[in-house]
Every structure is written in structure tokens, then in C-alpha cells.
Design goal:
By secondary structure, this protein is α+β, with helices and mostly antiparallel strands. It has two helices and three strands. The longest helix has 12 residues. It is globular.
């Protein structure tokens, strides 16, 4: 089921100041044997009933679902993942 998302630009620091909270951090990625051609992007947004929808470009949707669930302290039944065109070739 397609989900329509509106992306707005504006005053990011002011939006963060008004928000209930946000996640900030960094990560280190070790060496790799190959290069991932997919864009490294995910968008997670709240849906009805206290659940979340996660749209991501990945070959491993369950990995991203588990990561978001760990950050938000939620079960996998509360985060729905959609990924277009999984695989290569």
C-alpha cells in the first residue's frame, strides 16, 4: 500500500527544539569486500495506533526493522517495513 510523505524544508534547529525528542549519534563501518549500490537511506514515520512505518532502500529489511525497534524500544509487530526492488541484477 503506497504511503504519501511530504518533505518540508525549514529551520531544523527550531524544529528539534520544539520536538519531544530526537536521536543523534554516529557509527563506524569497518572495511568491506564489496560496495553497496543501494542508497543508504531510511525514513521512519508514525502511523495510526502508535505504530511506525519504515521505508528503506535495502537488501535486508528485517535488519533495518530490528535496528529501528531497538532504538524505539518497540516490538517488530509495531514497525512495518517496506523496501522496493530487493535484490540485484
Amino acid at each position: 500500500e503506497p504511503v504519501e510523505v511530504e518533505i518540508k524544508s525549514g529551520d531544523v534547529p527550531a524544529a528539534i527544539e520544539k520536538s519531544d525528542g530526537y536521536v543523534e549519534g554516529s557509527m563506524v563501518i569497518g572495511s568491506q569486500r564489496h560496495f553497496y549500490m543501494e542508497p543508504q537511506n531510511s525514513t521512519c514515520f508514525p502511523t495510526e495506533g502508535g505504530t511506525y512505518a519504515l521505508q528503506c532502500a535495502t537488501q535486508d529489511p528485517p535488519y533495518f526493522q530490528a535496528a529501528v525497534c531497538a532504538v524505539l524500544g518497540m516490538s517488530t509487530t509495531q514497525v512495518k517495513v517496506t523496501a522496493a526492488r530487493v535484490g540485484g541484477g
